[in-house]
Amino acid sequence: MNLSQAKVLITGGSSGIGKATAQLLLRKGAKVAICGRDPQKLQAAADELGAVALPADVSNEAQVTELVQAAVTQLGGYNVLINNAGFGLFAPLTELDPADFRRVWETNVLGAMLVAQASARHFVQEKYGNIINISSTAGSRGFAGGTAYASSKFALGGMTECWRAELRPHNIRVMQVNPSEVLTEFRERSGRDRAPENPTKLHAEDIAHAIASLLELDDRGFVTETTVWATNPRE
Questions:
Q1: Where residue 90 falls among pLDDT bands split at 50, 70, 90?
Q2: What family does this chain come from, according to its entry (predicted)?
Q3: Of these residues, 78, 149, 163, 222, which one is catalytic?
Q4: Domain for residue 234, yes or no?
């Protein structure tokens, strides 16, 4: 698609991959709205970027309905969802708090479904749209301590395949990006120490570039899934 015609909603858009993607798409001429749960942080990011701030909790169905309606109104249309909101909590199975497991799934799985559902209803009416789900390499291989997070990303991959099968007849492209480790606030939000700056590891801008590339492919085709690894990461 021509990104100057893109009208984009990015969930989890106030930091990390979401914010970097908003910045790149805006630079390429798209209209962009970013969503997040913290209104002050979200507005600060929107002001910095020149994006539209749309506060919402993606796990709340009523808020999601209002979110998508607001995106359509404030962007003057809507044709791209970047389903990026998500976080991780990590613990061995024997120590995993069911409440933490539920919190991860409510955002990473239920939230992704609700925003995609409301967006798809609009895209089907318009007979056109794009959905990009931001997953993880954790969605293809589990690891010790990753029960909550990895399972949520495996589930997202399954939903992506279902939506792709359902929505292709309506000219809606459903795609997935699987980043490996990216140096963002993700580690801190999961209760771990922030990773030090490392030029050999992936940065949010790298994933933003992958997302923009998927969208820029002519609408006659699409890349179903892409995985991004650091070439030669060093500690």
A1: very high
A2: Belongs to the short-chain dehydrogenases/reductases (SDR) family.
A3: 149
A4: no
Give the contacts of 114 (CB within 8 A, at least 6 positions apart): 58, 59, 60, 61, 64
Does any domain span residue 19? Answer: yes
Q: How far apart are CA 15 and CA 193, in angstroms?
A: 17
Find where tokens 């933490």 sit: 100
- Token pair of 80, please? 């791209």
Which tens digit of pLDDT belongs to each residue from 42-63? 999 999 999 999 999 999 999 9
pTM confidence score: 0.95
Q: What is the pLDDT of residues 114-173, one digit of tens each?
A: 999 999 999 999 999 999 999 999 999 999 999 999 999 999 999 999 999 999 999 999
3-state secondary structure 141-180: CCCCCEHHHHHHHHHHHHHHHHHHHHHHHHCEEEEEEEEC
Three-state DSSP class for residue 230: coil
78 a catalytic residue: no
Say how far apart CA 178 and CA 166 lie, in whole Å: 21
Is residue 235 in some structural domain? no
Q: How many domains does the chain have?
A: 1
With contact defined as beta carbons under 8 Å apart, do 28 and 4 qualify? yes
Helix axes 39-49, 16-27, angle to 10 degrees: 30
State residue 72's pLDDT score: 98
Residue for token pair 């910095």: 48
Structural element, H or E, at residue 68: helix 61-75
